[in-house]
Amino acid sequence: MSGYTYAEVERILVAGDLRGRLTRHDLPTPALLLDLDAFEANVAAMARHCRAHGLALRPHGKTHKCPEIANALIRAGAVGACAAKVSEAEVFAAHGVTGILVTTPVVGRDKIERAVELARQHGDTLFLADHPANVRALDVAAAAAGVVLNVVIDLHVGRKGGVLPGEPALELARLVASLQHLNPAGLQAYAGFASHTVGYDQRRIASAEALGPAVETKRLLDRDGIACPLLTGGSTGTYDIDTAIGSVTELQPGSFIFMDLDYRGIGGRDGGAFRDFRAALTVLTTVVSKPTSALAIIDAGTKAFSTDRPLVPEAIGVKGVTYAWGGDEHGKLDVRRASAAVELGDRLEFVVPHCDPTVNLYDRIYCLRGDVVEAAWPIAARGKSQ
Amino acid sequence: MSGYTYAEVERILVAGDLRGRLTRHDLPTPALLLDLDAFEANVAAMARHCRAHGLALRPHGKTHKCPEIANALIRAGAVGACAAKVSEAEVFAAHGVTGILVTTPVVGRDKIERAVELARQHGDTLFLADHPANVRALDVAAAAAGVVLNVVIDLHVGRKGGVLPGEPALELARLVASLQHLNPAGLQAYAGFASHTVGYDQRRIASAEALGPAVETKRLLDRDGIACPLLTGGSTGTYDIDTAIGSVTELQPGSFIFMDLDYRGIGGRDGGAFRDFRAALTVLTTVVSKPTSALAIIDAGTKAFSTDRPLVPEAIGVKGVTYAWGGDEHGKLDVRRASAAVELGDRLEFVVPHCDPTVNLYDRIYCLRGDVVEAAWPIAARGKSQ
Fold first, then answer.
1. Strands B231-233 and B182-189
2. Tell me, what's the ipTM?
3. What confidence score (pLDDT) does residue A49 get?
4. Which residues of B touch A107 (CB under 8 A)?
């Protein structure tokens, strides 16, 4: 520990004047940590992969909700950032992120008003749509504001939203092309379920089946003379699969920057774990109670780790420690087989089950080079689900 | 809808100048809603219950993380508020909440520094401890700052933290009593598992078994001449059970103010659902895609509802709608048996599976009287898990 008081640590972090003065031991737990070496390696690997295959990279910002990370990805070659919702896009745009694609349809008068304002300030923003009534509403609002909205048509290939591929999509594209204040920008075909299909070959089959109708729809548009410069989709789980699908023009993966236990479990190309990207995200915790020799209680529960996957946080640095949920505020560690003593006040680090919703629980991500804190980035779009 | 633009709605909300000008239809979704009539009825019922049984009420603030709610409870008769962590307590204290009990041991130099500062500013704050080394560290820090810390000894009755009841607890109490800058304030015996035990009789048995050793420990302290003005514990699930345990002096329930599907399922005294308190908390959502007649996609997924219980959000207002998780950002509704048409742009309201971690996902709770928005309270301690 550096010897700084908590108040001094906070002052240094808020001022951003770190200069190697803080280490992980100074951070208040539970703390969200980013291993910069692993993060940078992941970013470089994905950028290289997309360049090699002639694909644009528009990484999904819902994973990190952090403008510094979105801008770091753009510096590494990304064409922009995806944002899940309008409010997330607003935060990114306010921090200088360009080329934003909003991947939820903009539905409702208030959301359309915000989208139009985004388009007025940042003409390169792209908006998703999948319904004729919504498309008409977008055009009316854009006309009233004197802007043109770039509209990407979302295809129903992923068991969630989207217009049905084929004729329904073609009709919607014709409508977009016919409206004066909309610019037909292309198609989205995102199949989240394929990304999480376990086994490389099974994933390849799932993704090909999901994207087949999208490729066919793109052909329909081409034949109809409707411009379709974009076919965006793909994810961390299919990043090296969707490259084989010729019509795909860009990938929008998210988790590769951080990785998590869920993605590690989908299986790699070689049949082992999926380790194409390094684990860069962890949560640092403190043992706050040691009621028995077998049981240690840490200060990180379901408000510190997301619970949307049937997985528990995994300790690193010490072996033989098993985490169990201990409610909203605490975790229960079975330390009977721990490779080192686990005592009151000890700090333990955990890989997270699922990165996106875990990051969404924190206001700040601490960026480490080894033990040294290089930066503390605000998760400025945290909670921006609107 | 009022006809206000989104920008105008935000200005009215931030200025706090509502005067009945906004209704639920003006709110950006997903939005966390509080039914004020139900909330006030819940608060009144619990306050009445505690008064009738001569118990102090110190409701747990981890449920709401909202200073306005903590202060409303104090106005209704609560002696203070529990806070799960030091950082949560800091937010409450900064907003005028008095009588705070921090229900996680204060472990680590930085946390002790913050606790001492809290005690300096608010002498009535209570801190939990369960370990002799930690107790000594608290005393040293309190001495250095010239303050006295009120220490509540946490008993291991709930399958989580705490010192073992009986002799180990007595020894720790003796240590606290012997140290000059610590004030022995009593015992905590919190058995969270008992609260969620399904079935009233089973819950009664679980709570009695858990609290028995606490009552016995209190007797040991009394016999030893150590003051024990406080035996705090209890929860929403056992609020009318722990009253029968004579030595308990105060209840610290949380969820009763909001209620949720999880608590409804624990079973009431009459063998039916647990309906002693009204459902006051919901999430308002919007249908953002309608890919098929059977499927509607809403803008609320695992970043809008917590997933720590094996339950899904339950629609109100329309029957026959089944929610399924659709990832971080979306929910998938099976609307084949819906009692009314569910179309693009429709707004649907859901009761949440588990209130505490759901509230922790939002920055603001909208307080409604019928359809009128009476207030928008900041969830100022959201994310304060440190």
1. parallel
2. 0.96
3. 97
4. 286-289, 299, 344-345
